[in-house]
Design a protein that fits this description.
By secondary structure, this protein is of the alpha+beta class. The chain has helices at 11-18, 47-53, 62-70, 82-96, 99-103, 149-162, 192-195, 208-222, 228-242, 246-275, 309-323, 338-350, and strands at 2-5, 27-32, 38-44, 73-78, 110-116, 122-126, 139-146, 278-282, 290-295, 298-304, 358-359. 41% of the residues lie in helices and 17% in strands.
Length: 364
């Protein structure tokens, strides 16, 4: 690891002392303030060129200027490859939570179907958030999917069809079997119950068993284990058509198309994630090749690429340990691995040639 310390805001001196020390090789670098706090973490395929870009004449990048003004010390760790730099950057960001990485990260173009746990689970579409953002409520995530109005509409159709709530997470829940807790009949907090699109868990209008059964049907659909919602839509569409209620049939057809799109999108995503299970031999920039054991788009382990018989035997034992680990394909995503999963999916999509340097986890 290399580092240098400079007076706060002395950008010219920072440039003069940084560029000669940095080599043009893959690296992860950190900008630290006078208190030693990491304010920004970045990656570079060629470190010297990347750091030099911060000091380019005429640069109007306000973010880079603000980072430099807060920087007293720069540290960096050289990496064997650009792929390793991507992984290293992600893990350091997750460990340090740098101010500029968190506050100025670009908005994601992907979203998830999210299931907030609790007395009355809620299913909705949204971007990745931490548990802290939901008041400590844990979540299940399904996806990733394109962040679009179509996704939100498809989830709305699923909720309406099964009578699941879409209200605030902190909405009080009262089930029918808790009726002795209130003396007078309660009304649902929104009009959806009157429209027949919510079972009313906020007003004791549904039993807990009934509501959780509805949630179970939705989860089975999201996990590709059942298509009961689609069957119900098809039955209603055919009934309307047979009764010559063609406008009603058209509305049911639109719901069918929304659910069909959601089912197909989730199936494609599950397949893509399952496909990213292999050993990836990544060449190093200076001969320091490294091999990664990847399973369901997550790096389980890595080691220097083996060359001798003893090294290959040891590495195969490492691969076998992770290849035989128990897994449950098709269920919701591991919340703590979302960012790495997105990183790997993006890497192999942008670098299809990298797939030529992979081999199966288990011999054929």
């Amino acid at each position: 690891m290399s580092s240098l310390t400079l007076p706060l805001g002395d950008i010219e001196t920072l440039k003069r002392r940084t560029i000669p020390l940095a080599e043009n090789r893959p690296a992860v670098y950190r900008m630290l303030d006078p208190l030693g706090r990491v304010v920004y973490v970045g990656k570079a395929k060629r470190l010297r060129a990347r750091l030099n870009s911060y000091f380019a004449p005429g640069s109007d990048d306000d973010r880079q200027l603000r980072i430099l003004e807060m920087t007293e010390r720069i540290e960096w760790d050289y990496q064997p490859s650009e792929f390793a730099a991507h992984l290293g950057e992600l893990r350091q960001i997750q460990r340090c939570h740098p101010h500029f990485n968190v506050q100025m990260n670009r908005a994601r173009r992907v979203a998830f179907v999210k299931v907030a746990e609790g007395p009355a689970p809620k299913i909705y579409a949204g971007k990745r958030t931490s548990e802290r953002a939901n008041g400590g409520t844990s979540e299940r995530l399904y996806g990733p999917l394109p962040a679009s109005r179509r996704l939100a509409e498809s989830v709305r159709v699923l909720n309406d069809l099964l009578g699941l709530r879409d209200c605030a997470l902190d909405m009080p829940v009262v089930y029918a079997e808790q009726g002795d807790l209130f003396a007078v009949a309660r009304r649902a907090a929104c009009i959806r119950h009157e429209l027949g699109t919510c079972a009313g868990p906020c007003a004791g209008l549904v039993t807990e068993g009934d509501y959780r059964g509805r949630v179970g049907v939705a989860l089975g659909f999201l996990e590709g284990l059942g298509i009961a919602p689609l069957d119900r839509v098809v039955a209603a569409m055919n009934a309307a058509s047979n009764s010559d209620h063609f406008e009603v049939a058209t509305r049911w057809r639109d719901r069918f198309e929304a659910l069909e799109w959601l089912l197909a999108a989730l199936t494609r995503t599950r397949t893509a994630i399952a496909t990213l299970s292999f050993v990836y031999h990544c060449p190093g920039a200076f001969g320091d090749d490294r091999s990664y054991v990847i399973r369901r788009a997550r790096v389980c382990a890595s080691a220097p690429t083996p060359h001798t018989p003893i090294e290959r035997e040891a590495f195969q034992a490492l691969v076998a340990e992770h290849a035989t680990a128990e897994e449950q394909p098709g269920v919701h995503l591991p919340v703590d691995g979302i960012e790495e999963m997105l990183l790997l999916m993006s890497w192999f999509r942008k670098h299809p040639g990298a797939l030529k340097r992979t081999e199966p986890l288990t011999p054929n």
